[in-house]
């Protein structure tokens, strides 16, 4: 594959952008080589500046559930832009997006729109602390909830990819307010509550972990967390920034039948533009300013372009068969990979919930981050590079998720599986 222009841009990027990127996982540190530079995307295919085409299973890390440049989304944003990009006063689209979110996630009665998943989780935690009057929070090893200070403790995604246990720059006094437990370990979380229940404001969890690869909750685990938090007056926050509209149309809370106290969202609800959101019962949400005293604000929160993109995306995704097509595409891919792994004798563990999934080079099972971390990351890197050379762009880290969209067709899947069969044979 030609890469002259990408290489030139990479040199320029490294002069002015830290590590050449604006988000660490994009730097391909875990898989070697340098990232290509995107020029355009259309449907399931992304084209780089040298004209190379890739079937895209990263989809901007989840938002593009309809694929790149979906016409209705492009048109909606264009129409909104022609009327003005931001007003900083209420607009109707914010109401309609909140209504759509509430319709799909009935645990939510009121919404607050923000600009990223990080803002959503950071704000939801502040609300939980304000609502309960308690300081401690609990998160789970390998879960990633964005880069707010108190959440960069034993986090997944880029920290797992780069082997950063917890980020420097966070005061010890602050980090001590974050307790951590392994995912799927009820004994550990119960011990934390035995010791600290009276001062735990909330649990925040990815109900389906998507930032350590994809790890599924074991049967009864989420319900047990629901019961535990209810018993001790702590809030249960489902971070569905990634799993929302992917684990099921109504998120993991719909798939597993759990009603969290607060839900955080992002990615899909912005359709590729910067949007985050958090929501829950009015009795909790009304503690937020300007109704209540818990403060949170944002210049571009609910801006017309992002709400237009999000509304257009959810409008299409809620059409009959649309969501199901994203899940079916990943199911076909997973089954094909499973056959190839058996043919070649390569031990793999595949996980999937809806349209998000992961191929671990590990014989499985994988129930938590410690087990995921034993995956053969060198073999994953070789797989990634082999697939990239064959026009398939997967997550550039073993500790990330892959995604499908309504735009991934049988032809894309066949091409992906043909490439995978060739690469697996090289890995054997
Ligand atoms: P953002 O601030 O990146 O919009 O969202 C943070 C976030 C919160 N919660 C969950 C469950 C998330 O997955 C994320 C962000 N996901 C990563 C991918 N694993 C974003 C990619 C990146 O960091 O560049």
Bound molecules: ligand KE4
Please report which band the strand proportion falls in: under 5%, 5-15%, 15-25%, 25-35%, 35-45% or over 45%.
5-15%
Q: Average pLDDT across residues?
A: 97
Outline type: globular
Helix and strand sequence: HEEEHHEHEHHEHEHEHEEHHHEEHHEEH
CATH class of the largest domain: Alpha Beta
Account of the 3D structure:
It is a single chain. The protein has 15 helices and 14 strands. With 428 residues, the chain is α/β, with parallel strands linked by helices. It folds into two domains: 4-69 and 321-427, Aspartate Aminotransferase, domain 1 (Alpha-Beta Complex), CATH 3.90.1150; 71-317, Type I PLP-dependent aspartate aminotransferase-like (Major domain) (Aspartate Aminotransferase, domain 2). A seven-stranded mixed β-sheet has the order 4-10-9-8-7-5-6, with helices on both faces. The mean pLDDT is 97. The chain binds ligand KE4. Ligand KE4 is lined by residues 23, 25, 61, 116-118, 121, 144-146, 157-158, 206, 210-211, 239, 241-242, 266, 276, 400.
């Amino acid at each position: 594959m030609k890469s002259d222009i990408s290489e030139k841009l990479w040199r320029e990027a490294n002069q002015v952008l830290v590590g050449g990127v604006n988000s660490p996982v994009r730097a391909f540190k875990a898989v070697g080589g340098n990232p290509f530079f995107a020029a355009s995307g259309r449907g399931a295919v992304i084209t780089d500046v040298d004209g190379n085409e890739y079937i895209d299973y990263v989809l901007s890390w989840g938002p593009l559930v309809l694929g790149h440049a979906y016409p209705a989304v492009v048109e909606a944003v264009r129409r909104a832009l022609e009327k003005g990009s931001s007003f900083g006063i209420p607009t109707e689209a914010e109401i309609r997006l909140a209504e759509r979110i509430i319709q799909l996630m009935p645990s939510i009665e009121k919404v607050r729109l923000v600009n990223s998943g990080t803002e959503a989780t950071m704000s939801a935690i502040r609300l939980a602390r304000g609502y309960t009057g308690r300081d401690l929070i609990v998160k789970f090893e390998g879960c990633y909830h964005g880069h707010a200070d108190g959440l960069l403790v034993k986090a997944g995604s880029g920290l797992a990819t780069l082997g950063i246990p917890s980020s420097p720059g966070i005061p010890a006094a602050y980090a001590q307010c974050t307790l951590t437990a392994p995912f799927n370990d009820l004994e550990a979380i119960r011990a934390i509550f035995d010791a600290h229940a009276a001062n735990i404001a909330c649990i925040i969890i990815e109900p389906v972990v998507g930032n350590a690869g994809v790890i599924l909750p074991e049967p009864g685990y989420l319900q047990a967390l629901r019961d535990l938090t209810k018993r001790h007056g702590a809030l249960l926050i489902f971070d569905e920034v990634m799993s929302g509209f992917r684990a099921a149309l109504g998120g993991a809370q719909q798939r597993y039948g759990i009603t969290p106290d607060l839900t955080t969202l992002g990615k899909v609800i912005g359709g590729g533009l910067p949007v985050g959101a958090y929501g829950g019962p009015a009795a909790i949400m009304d503690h937020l300013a300007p109704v209540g005293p818990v403060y949170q604000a944002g210049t571009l929160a609910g801006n017309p372009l992002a709400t237009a993109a999000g509304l257009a995306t959810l409008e299409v995704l809620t059409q009959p068969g649309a969501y199901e097509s994203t899940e079916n595409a990943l199911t076909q891919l997973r089954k094909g990979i499973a056959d190839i792994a058996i043919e070649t004798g390569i031990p793999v563990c595949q996980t999937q919930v809806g349209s998000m999934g992961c191929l671990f080079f590990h014989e499985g099972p994988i129930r938590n981050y410690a087990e995921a971390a034993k995956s053969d990351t060198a073999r994953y890197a070789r797989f990634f590079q082999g697939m990239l050379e064959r026009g398939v762009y997967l997550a550039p880290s073993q500790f990330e998720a892959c995604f499908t969209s309504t735009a991934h067709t049988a032809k894309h899947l066949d091409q992906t599986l043909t490439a995978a069969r060739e690469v697996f044979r090289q890995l054997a």
